[in-house]
Amino acid sequence: MNEGCVRECPGCAHRDWSLKESSAQKMGWLSTRLSDWKNQIESLRVSDQILNYRNKTCLRAEWDPSTQKWKLGLRVQNGISAQGKRLYEVISIPNCPIHSESIRRVIQGLISVLPSHFPLVFVTVSGKLATLVLKSPKSPKFWEELPGFSEIFCREKGWDPSSLGLDGVWGNLNPAAGERVFSNRGWHLILGQERSQFSLELEPGQFFSFEYGPDSFQQLIPNLYLQALDEVSRFFKLCSEDRVVDLCSGIGISLKKWQLSSAQTLGVELNGEAVKNAWKNAGTESCLQGRSSERIPQIQDWLNSSSKIKTGRRFVFVNPPRLGIEPEVTQWLSHSFRPDAIAYLSCSAGTLARDLSILCNSGYRVNRIIPYDFFPQTSHVETLTLLERVS
Predict the structure, then answer these.
(1) Is 316 in the same domain as 360?
(2) pTM score, two decimals?
(3) Could you please report the per-residue DSSP string of 58-102?
(4) Range of the domain at 91
(5) Within 10 A of 341 (CB to CB), how many other CB atoms are there?
(6) CA 373 to CA 105: how far, in whole Å?
(7) Are residues 121 and 249 located together in one domain of the fold?
(8) Is residue 198 a contact partner of residue 127, using CB atoms and an 8 Å limit?
(9) If phi over 0 gives left and psi between -120 and 50 gives alpha, with beta otherwise, what is residue 335?
(10) Could you tell me if 250 and 137 lie in one domain?
(11) What total of structural domains would you count in the chain?
């Protein structure tokens, strides 16, 4: 077990496994779930960085009266009450070796300053932005009236987010905190900047800055993610007459990648914060907000209005959540849109198998399946599937 790891923490199922053992389990899982295409599954792509790689986290918060400090970590069940209700406790992981050094510094710093009376439920960190999620009605005067708030966070008292390596600290007031993490309308900037930035080398020698917010999704190991985008780019072989529809496009990293090939691009993303960042990162007309299924008419209008409609090829890149591609979108892809090729980056082999069955029964063929170890020390594995239209 790695230094700083807490045995009771349920986060890393493979922490006592060798890389060979972990890789074998993940490949076996994929071969079982994707049995119809197991001959197309390639070797697992891994990173040299198997510790200190997680630069984004969401932790439960629980006040510990015995230590007079907050516990920030993962919640586990620890019994049943006399009334038959499940009882839980938070396993504190202030020195988790999976977290980056910057996240450990933020966790330890917040534990040392947060007062007991904060109605704190979650602490999230996304890069250099931290968010305190409090279970409270969304009152505009909440922060001014919260006891202890001024002493800890007000600029006049000298507290600076940069002391924890942060660019900004947000608050999110969520009456339903615990059932879900964030309330869409509960955001309040406490200190510092609204957004932050990081840099990626999308092409050799070409670095680009990407803006992100406190609730923006990002892949955890950038070098593996860039490898996956490179594979897609080589598969698509994009040129200026081509069009790429990018579904679940996040903050626009993949959109920017396709634009480097001069292809015309349109993204769709549900998260409003990510869409605003995508407009900044990839252009103001690069991304639509909403569910992919809701934006099919606008995507179709964009395709039909293209000046290159008769000569250019059409491609789709999709990076959905664990639920996979929405049924309406799968139907549209396989029976109406019918792009020349599809690249599907999946975090769930089960929903991937479901969607591949539909696509492969509608005139598409799996060209390659490339697994990536985006979550070392855990049982999770992500998979890039490249499909081409054959009829």
Answers:
(1) yes
(2) 0.92
(3) EEEEEEETTTTEEEEEEEEEEEE-TTS-EEEEEEE-TT-TTB-HH
(4) 56-192
(5) 19
(6) 26
(7) no
(8) yes
(9) alpha
(10) no
(11) 2
Distance CA(262)–CA(201), nearest Å, equals 17
Q: Say if residue 81 is in the same domain as residue 99.
A: yes
Tokens of 112: 């040392």
Please answer whether residues 92 and 27 qualify as being in contact, where contact means their C-beta atoms are separated by less than 8 angstroms: no
Asked whether 54 and 220 are in contact (CB, 8 A), the reply is yes
Among 391, 36, 387, 37, smallest CA distance to 232 is for: 387
Q: In 3-state terms, what secondary structure has residue 11?
A: coil
| 167 and 64 housed in the same domain | yes
Distance CA 228, CA 383 (A): 9
Alpha carbons within 13 A on the beta-carbon side of 17: 16
Shared domain check, 335 and 235? yes
If you count them, how many residues does the chain have?
391
Q: Tens-of-pLDDT digits for all 391 residues of the chain? A: 788 899 899 999 999 999 999 999 999 999 999 999 999 999 999 998 899 999 999 999 999 999 999 999 999 998 888 888 888 899 999 999 999 999 999 999 888 888 888 899 999 999 999 999 999 887 777 877 787 777 777 655 566 778 888 999 999 999 988 888 999 889 999 888 999 999 999 999 999 999 999 998 778 899 999 999 999 999 999 999 999 999 999 999 999 999 999 999 999 999 999 999 999 999 988 899 999 999 999 999 999 885 555 578 999 999 999 999 999 999 999 999 999 999 999 999 999 999 999 999 999 999 999 999 999 999 999 999 999 999 7
Q: Of 118, 117, 190, 184, which Cα lies nearest the Cα of 153? A: 190
- The closest alpha carbon to 173, from 115, 114, 117, 120, belongs to 120
* Sign of the four-CA dihedral 45, 47, 50, 56: negative
Contact 139, 173 (CB under 8 A): yes
In the prediction, which pLDDT does 105 show?
92
* Per-residue pLDDT, 185: 87
Q: Where among 176, 192, 208 does a domain terminate? A: 192
Output the DSSP codes for 291-350.
-GGGGHHHHHHHHHH-TTTTT--EEEEE---TT-S-HHHHHHIIIII--SEEEEEES-HH
Distance CA 267, CA 285 (A): 9
Both 240 and 353 in one domain: the answer is: yes
Model pLDDT, residue 335: 93
